[in-house]
Amino acid sequence: MHGYEIIQEIARRTGGGWSPSPGSVYPTLQMLADEGLISSAEEGGKKLFTLTDHGRTEQTAPPWRDINFQLDPVDGELRSSIRLLGSAMEQISHAGTPEQKARAVELYNELRRKLYAILAEE
């Protein structure tokens, strides 16, 4: 996989509970390469990373395994919804007309009020 695919796969396997940034993934990949646990090769203009034989023998349980046990499934759904909402808002901020942006702000503010109302329920 290339680095971005690794980031996506970690996020997928953790149900969105852990989505590392490129700033943390790429230095980690370099460290693993320095230790001989992975190798890299250019393919189609992308740097692809593969476990070495040494990396396969040193492999421990994946860190997301422990996270999966700690995350409430509803938390994973909530995190996913938050990410999707953020993506939609970002798209509106970049491509929306001034009227669409104003409507989005109104909707977002209404959603925020309703979320706080949920927390206020007994």
Automatic annotation (TrEMBL):
Transmembrane segments: none annotated. Residues 1-58 form the Transcription regulator PadR N-terminal domain. This is Transcription regulator PadR N-terminal domain-containing protein. Pfam families: PadR (PF03551). SUPFAM superfamilies: Winged helix' DNA-binding domain. It comes from the Bacteria. It comes from Lentzea guizhouensis. Gene3D superfamilies: Winged helix-like DNA-binding domain superfamily/Winged helix DNA-binding domain.
